[in-house]
Design brief:
It contains 38 helices and 28 strands. With 909 residues, it is an alpha/beta fold. The protein folds into six domains: 10-198, inorganic pyrophosphatase (n-terminal core) (Alpha-Beta Complex), CATH 3.90.1640.10; 204-320, Diaminopimelate Epimerase, Chain A, domain 1 (Roll), CATH 3.10.310.30; 326-454, CBS-domain; 460-622, 2-Layer Sandwich (Beta Polymerase, domain 2), CATH 3.30.460.10; 720-846, Methane Monooxygenase Hydroxylase, Chain G, domain 1 (Up-down Bundle), CATH 1.20.58; 853-905, no CATH class. An eight-stranded mixed sheet has the order 17-26-25-18-19-22-21-20. It has a six-stranded mixed sheet with strand order 6-7-8-9-11-10, sandwiched between helices. It is globular, with a radius of gyration of 37 Å. This is Putative polymerase family protein. It comes from Megalodesulfovibrio gigas (strain ATCC 19364 / DSM 1382 / NCIMB 9332 / VKM B-1759).
Length: 909
C-alpha cells in the first residue's frame, strides 16, 4: 500500500550532516514561522544523532524528507547554509524554483560566500551575517519580536550556540553570541544539559585514532604561517571525527589544523583556524565542503589522501600568497609555433631554446590553439612525419590562465591536468607562458608546498589489497601473494598489470593473470612454474613467458582447470617506422606501462609483500576509469600501432566508455595517413576477430563505420542499409540462441564475417581473405560455409513449396554447419521457414534413435555403409512421426533389413 505524501506548503530544513547549530536554528526558525513542517536532513555526529532520536523527534515533531510532497512546498526556509550542494534532500523543490515555479526561498546563515558563486542560492527573505552561530542570528530576531521560549527550546538553542563557538573559545565568537546566551539563560536554558551533551568521552577506537593523528601530525611553514597536517586511514566509517580534531587542536596548541581521515572511498577533512591569515571555510569550499573562516569541513570522494593533501597545499599556498599572480612568474613574450607549420619547425624551435613544449598559435595571430610536447614532436619526426602540420599532434583544448590569476589555477593546470605549460591569455591572445620550471622555481623555497605530483618519478598511490581480498577467489589471491614472495626471494619487484587491474577496479575481475617483473621475467617464470608444478612456454624475442598450471583448483566444488599466468620482463618498445612490429629493450615498470595502448590499461599493482596491493598509476588511469573515457597515452599511439584504433572501439563498447576527443581526432588522423594499409592483414584480422566475437559486435561495427575504419580495412566492408539490417537480425538470433545454452557455441567471427560478405561473389570473398591474411584453414572454412548456406537456401525454398516434412528439413540442415543455420534464420523473412529452423536448432538436431547398430547386428546384417542408410531412414520416419517408439523403430528396421537381403538376391547384385 502506497503511503500518502505530507502536504507541506511551508518547510524549514538545514544542511545535510547537520550539527547542533543546524538543528537549533531549525527549531528557532519554527518560532518565526508558525505551522511550518520541520524536516531533519540527517547527521553523522553520533551524539547529535542520539540526542535527536531520543528527544528532538518527540519534542519538535520533525519529519523525514521522504515523507514530504515536494510539489506542495510553496515556501522553503533554509538555515545554517545557503549552498545548493548541501541541500540534496530538497533538490526537487529547488528544481521547481529553477523551472520558474512560484517557490519562495528564505535563508538564515552565518557562513561566508561559497567559492563557487553559482552554488549560493538566491533568496527573497532572510538574514546572513558573520556570527559564531546561525542560531544567534535567529535568536536576535526572536528577542526583538518579544517571542518567548520554554526551557526545552532555550536549552536546545543554547546547545547550538555553545557547540559552534567552542563554548565561546573560537575566534569566530562575537559579542552577540554571548549576549544571546545570556538571553537564553533568562529564558530557562539548562546549562547542565548543555554541558552533558557537549561532554564527549572518547571511545577506545577514537583514542587509538587520535594517537595516530598525533603521530602523523607534521607542521609546514607556508609564508610564515604554521599549518599542521594530520592523517589517518580507516577501513570503516568513524563517527565524531571532528571531535578528534578539536582534541588535537587543544592538546598541541595548534594555530591551523587540517585533519584528514580516509574512510572507505572518502577522505573526510576537518579544518580549524585560530588566525585570520587562513580562512578554512574558503579552503574547504574549494574541496566541495563548507564552513566559516575558523571551522570548516569537506568530504572528498574517489581521491587518495595524497591527492587531497596536494590540493590542500596548492589552495593554502594560493590563498596565503594572493600577491603572487601569473603575470609575475610568466615568461614573456611567448615563443610559439603556428598550427599550420610543420612539426620539423617546432622541433627546431624547441631544440634551439631548450623547451619541453610549445604553445601553438592560430596562423598570423597569438590566439592559443593547443600545446605540442617535445617528446611527441621527436617521435613524429622519427616516423617520417616531420612534414605533417603541428595541429595534427598537438594537445587541443588546453587550459589557459589570465595575467591576474593566482597560483592555484596555474598549479591545477600543470599539476592536476599534467599540461606541460600554462599559456597566459589576455584579450584573446597569449601574452606569456608559465612552464613547469617557472612554477617549481616559485615554490622551491618551501618544498612542502610542492604537490607530490610535480616531483619526478612519483606516481599516485593507492592500496587496493582490499579489492584483491573482496573480489578474487582465495586460490588466485594466494597465487599472486606467492608471486610477490618469489619476487622478494629473487630480488625483483613483481607487478600485476594491464586488463587484470582495470577489471579489478571496474569490479568485474578476470582470472587472466598478467605479471611484469623488473628483472629477468623468463627466469622468474621458470622458478614460479617449478614451485607450482607447472610448465613454461618462453618467447625470447619479446622476453616473455607463459606459465601453465594444468591442475589449478579455484573452487572445491569444481574440477581442476588449466590456469595460465603471462609473465613479461618490464620492457620498453619502440617502433622503427609506422605500423612496424615493436623492438624490445629492458626498462622499468613506468616505461613498461607507457608502451601500452590506453591509460585504462596502464595500471600496475605491486605484489611484493612489503607493498602488496600498492596501485601504480603514472598516467591518470584511475581518473579515466572513473570518467569512463578511452584515452591514448601519447599523440603518436595510432601511428606506432594502428590496430589500437580497433581496440579503442572494442573497449569503448565493452565497458560503455566514450572515446576521448583528442583520441578520436588522432584516430581520424591515422586514417587520413592510410596507416591501416601498412599493416599486415593478419594483424588487422586478429583485432577484427576479437571485435566480431564480442557480444556487442554490432555496436562495434557501427562505430567503426562512423569513424571510417571499416572502409579503411576494405572498401566493400562499409555498412550498407541491407548489411546493417542483416547484422541487426543476426544479433537478435545470436542472443536468442545464447539463451538456449546449447552446445556447440557458434564461431561468431566466422558467422559475422560471412554475414558482412553475404551478397559478394566468391572471388570477392577470396580477395577479402587475402587482405585479412586468413590462414588456409580459415579461408576454407569461410568459403565452405558460404557454399553450404547458398545450397541450403535453395533447398529450403523448394522444401517450403513442397510437403514440408520434418525429415527432409533435417536432411537439408544436417549438412549445414551451426553458423550456417543461424545465418539462414537471419536471412529468411518467411516466418514459416524461421519457425522450422528454430525447431531444427532447438529440437530436431538433438533427436536420437532408441535403437542402435547393435540391433542391426543382432538381425544378422553385416557391418558396412548400409548401417548408416538404414539408421538415417529410421530417423526420418521418427521425425515424421512414423516410428515414435523403440518397437516401431525395430519393426521398421526389420523391414529395411529384409529389403536389403531381397535386393542382394536380385540378379546382378
Amino acid at each position: 500500500m502506497t503511503q500518502t505524501k505530507l502536504h507541506a506548503p511551508l518547510v524549514i530544513t538545514g544542511h545535510t550532516n547537520a550539527d547542533f547549530d543546524a538543528l537549533a536554528a531549525m527549531v528557532a526558525a519554527s518560532k518565526l514561522y508558525p505551522g511550518a513542517v520541520l524536516v531533519f536532513p540527517g547527521s553523522q555526529e553520533r551524539t547529535l544523532r542520539n540526542f535527536f532520536i531520543q528527544s528532538a523527534v518527540y519534542l519538535f515533531n520533525f519529519k523525514n524528507p521522504k515523507d514530504i510532497d515536494p510539489v506542495s512546498v510553496q515556501t522553503l526556509v533554509l538555515v545554517d547554509s545557503r549552498q545548493r550542494s548541501r541541500f540534496p534532500h530538497v533538490k526537487a523543490v529547488l528544481d521547481r524554483r529553477d523551472a520558474g515555479e512560484a517557490v519562495d526561498i528564505h535563508i538564515y546563515d552565518h557562513h561566508p560566500d561559497a567559492m563557487d558563486p553559482d552554488d549560493d542560492l538566491s533568496f527573497s527573505t532572510g538574514h546572513v551575517e558573520a556570527m559564531g552561530a546561525t542560531t544567534t542570528i535567529i535568536c536576535r530576531i526572536l528577542q526583538d519580536r518579544g517571542i518567548s521560549l520554554n526551557q526545552d527550546e532555550a536549552t536546545l538553542l543554547g546547545l547550538g550556540i555553545y557547540e559552534d563557538t567552542g563554548s565561546f573559545t573560537f575566534p569566530s565568537t562575537t559579542p552577540e553570541d554571548l549576549e544571546i546566551a545570556a538571553w537564553l539563560k533568562r529564558q530557562g536554558m539548562d546549562l547542565s544539559v548543555v554541558g552533558e551533551l557537549l561532554q564527549r568521552e572518547l571511545t577506545v577506537e577514537q583514542v587509538k585514532v587520535l594517537g595516530t593523528l598525533l603521530e602523523s601530525a607534521v607542521t609546514h611553514e607556508i609564508n610564515g604561517v604554521p599549518v599542521v597536517m594530520a592523517e589517518v586511514s580507516l577501513e570503516s566509517y568513524l563517527g565524531d571525527f571532528a571531535i578528534l580534531a578539536h582534541k588535537l587542536l587543544d592538546m598541541e596548541n595548534i594555530r591551523v589544523l587540517f585533519a584528514l581521515g580516509r574512510m572507505q572511498d572518502r577522505v573526510h577533512v576537518v579544518a580549524r583556524s585560530r588566525t585570520p591569515d587562513v580562512d578554512v571555510g574558503l579552503i574547504c569550499s574549494s574541496l566541495g565542503g563548507g564552513g566559516h573562516a575558523y571551522a570548516a569541513s569537506a568530504t572528498v570522494k574517489d581521491k587518495t589522501i595524497v591527492q587531497v593533501k596536494d590540493e590542500l597545499f596548492a589552495l593554502l599556498f594560493s590563498h596565503i600568497n594572493p600577491h603572487i599572480l601569473a603575470m609575475r612568474i610568466m615568461s614573456k613574450p611567448p615563443v610559439t609555433v603556428e598550427a599550420t607549420q610543420p612539426i620539423n619547425d617546432a622541433v627546431e624551435i624547441m631544440t634551439r631554446y631548450g623547451f619541453k613544449a610549445l604553445p601553438v598559435a592560430a596562423p598570423g595571430t597569438l590566439m592559443c590553439e593547443g600545446v605540442l610536447d617535445h617528446s611527441t614532436a621527436d617521435k613524429a619526426q622519427s616516423h617520417g612525419l616531420g612534414h605533417i602540420p603541428v595541429s595534427e599532434y598537438m594537445q587541443r583544448d588546453c587550459a589557459v590562465v589570465t595575467p591576474h590569476a593566482d597560483l592555484y589555477p596555474v598549479m591545477e593546470i600543470i599539476v592536476g591536468q599534467r599540461q606541460r605549460l600554462a599559456p597566459v591569455v589576455e584579450d584573446g591572445e597569449m601574452v606569456g607562458v608559465i612552464t613547469r620550471t617557472d612554477l617549481i622555481n616559485t615554490l622551491i623555497e618551501e618544498p612542502a608546498r610542492i604537490p607530490e605530483m610535480l616531483l619526478p618519478e612519483k606516481s599516485r598511490e593507492r592500496n587496493v589489497s582490499a579489492l584483491f581480498h573482496d573480489q578474487l577467489p582465495r586460490p588466485v589471491l594466494a597465487l599472486l601473494e606467492d608471486a610477490g614472495r618469489l619476487g622478494d626471494e629473487l630480488g625483483v619487484p613483481v607487478y600485476a598489470v594491464g586488463g587484470f587491474v582495470r577489471d579489478l577496479l571496474l569490479k568485474s575481475p578476470t582470472l587472466d593473470l598478467d605479471l611484469v617483473v623488473e628483472g629477468d621475467g623468463q627466469a622468474f617464470a621458470r622458478a614460479f612454474a617449478a614451485r607450482h608444478q607447472g610448465r613454461v612456454r618462453e618467447h625470447s624475442k619479446f622476453k616473455t613467458a607463459v606459465v601453465v598450471l594444468p591442475h589449478f583448483t579455484i573452487n572445491a566444488n569444481q574440477p581442476p582447470r588449466e590456469q595460465k599466468v603471462d609473465v613479461a620482463t618490464a620492457r620498453l618498445e619502440y617502433y622503427e617506422y609506422p605500423a612496424a612490429l615493436p623492438t624490445v629493450e629492458l626498462s622499468s615498470i613506468k616505461m613498461d606501462l607507457y608502451r601500452r595502448d590506453f591509460t585504462i590499461n596502464a595500471l600496475a599493482v605491486e605484489l611484493n609483500p612489503a607493498s602488496f596491493g600498492r596501485l601504480v598509476d603514472f598516467f591518470g588511469s584511475q581518473r579515466d576509469i572513473k570518467d569512463r573515457v578511452i584515452r591514448v597515452l601519447h599523440s603518436l599511439s595510432f601511428v606506432e600501432d594502428p590496430t589500437r584504433m580497433l581496440r579503442a572501439v572494442r573497449f569503448s563498447q565493452r565497458y560503455d566508455f566514450r572515446i576521448g576527443k583528442q583520441t578520436l581526432r588522432l584516430i581520424k588522423n591515422a586514417l587520413q595517413l592510410n596507416l591501416l594499409d601498412r599493416l599486415s592483414g593478419h594483424r588487422i584480422f586478429n583485432e577484427l576477430k576479437l571485435i566480431l566475437n564480442e557480444e556487442e559486435f554490432l555496436q562495434d561495427l557501427e562505430m567503426m563505420q562512423d569513424l571510417g575504419i571499416l572502409k579503411a580495412i576494405h572498401p566493400k566492408l562499409e555498412m550498407t542499409p541491407h548489411r546493417k539490417a542483416l547484422l541487426e537480425e543476426l544479433d537478435k538470433i545470436l542472443t536468442w540462441y545464447g539463451l538456449l545454452y546449447q552446445s556447440p557455441t557458434p564461431r561468431r567471427w566466422l558467422l559475422c564475417l560471412l554475414a558482412m560478405a553475404a551478397t559478394w561473389k566468391e572471388e570477392e570473398l577470396l580477395a577479402l581473405t587475402v587482405r585479412l591474411g586468413l590462414s588456409k584453414k580459415e579461408e576454407r572454412e569461410l568459403v565452405t560455409l558460404r557454399r553450404s548456406v547458398h545450397k541450403a537456401m535453395d533447398l529450403l525454398k523448394r522444401w517450403c513449396a513442397g510437403d514440408k516434412s520434418l525429415s527432409e528439413l533435417y536432411g537439408i540442415m544436417h549438412q549445414t554447419p551451426l553458423e550456417g543455420a543461424l545465418l539462414l534464420m537471419a536471412k529468411f523473412d518467411d516466418d514459416c521457414i524461421k519457425k522450422h529452423l528454430s525447431l531444427y536448432l532447438t529440437t530436431l538436431r538433438g533427436i536420437q534413435l532408441q535403437m542402435s547398430g547393435e540391433h542391426l547386428m543382432d538381425m544378422g546384417l553385416p557391418p558396412g555403409p548400409i548401417y548408416t542408410r538404414i539408421l538415417d531412414s529410421i530417423r526420418a520416419a521418427k521425425l515424421d512421426g512414423r516410428a515414435s517408439t523403440l518397437a516401431a523403430e525395430l519393426a521398421l528396421a526389420e523391414i529395411l533389413v529384409r529389403q536389403y537381403w531381397d535386393a542382394q538376391q536380385q540378379p546382378g547384385s
